[in-house]
Amino acid sequence: MRFSFAAATAILLASCASAQTHTGTLFNFVPGLGACGFTNTSSQTVASVSSKVFNTFPGATANPNDNPICHHSVNISHNGVSVAAHVVDFFTAPNADDNVGLSPSAFQKFAPLDDGIVPNVTWSIV
Predict the structure, then answer these.
(1) pLDDT greater than 90 at residue 99
(2) Residues in contact with 59: Cβ distance below 8 Å, sequence separation at least 6, in sequence order
(3) DSSP letter string over the chain?
(4) For residue 5, what are the contacts with CB-CB under 8 A and spacing of at least 6?
(5) Of 9, 57, 87, 102, which residue has the fewest beta carbons closer than 10 angstroms?
(6) What's phi and psi for 96, nearest 5 deg?
(7) Is 63 in contact with 111 (CB distance < 8 Å)?
(8) Residue 31 contacts by C-beta under 8 Å, 6 or more apart in sequence?
(9) Exposure of 125 by Cβ count < 10 A (0-12 exposed, 13-18 middle, 19+ buried)?
(10) Would you say the pTM of this structure is higher than 0.85?
């Protein structure tokens, strides 16, 4: 099996981007029609990452529906609880690149919805 240099580089970059661990704030986000082109509900386990993480993911294109990150999940951990959620959207907020959003059904595994946020979670793209 032969790989082109470009294909090998893209695979390497994607694995490096996927392996990076972030520490940030988890927030509750209500999904709908997301940047990946999927319509999701609050009962599904889905995630939102920052626009910077989304737009700089290796292979990202001008069309967000074609972003390879849309075929990945995030693993989020805090105080012995871990959740894996598909990336379906991005958010814009200043200085929030290490934050991550979870749909209500998944957020409730970490805290009551009324809490709104959970600080100091760790997460990575897988």
Answers:
(1) yes
(2) 10, 13, 14, 67, 68
(3) ----HHHHHHHHHHHHHHH-EEEEEEEE---SB-TTS-B--TTS-EEEEEHHHHHTSTT--SSGGG-GGGG-EEEEEETTEEEEEEEEEEE--TT-TT-EEE-HHHHTTTS-GGG-EEEEEEEEE-
(4) none
(5) 9
(6) -130, 25
(7) no
(8) 40, 41, 42, 44, 46, 48, 88, 89, 103
(9) buried
(10) no
The average confidence (pLDDT) of the chain is: 89
The tokens for 90 are: 């991005």
Residue 59, token pair as written in the block: 């292979």
Q: Is the pLDDT of residue 98 over 50?
A: yes
* Structural tokens at position 32: 């709908």
N residues, the chain:
126
Q: Rounded mean pLDDT of 72-82?
A: 97
Cβ–Cβ under 8 Å, residues 83 and 76 = yes
Tokens 């292979």, residue located: 59
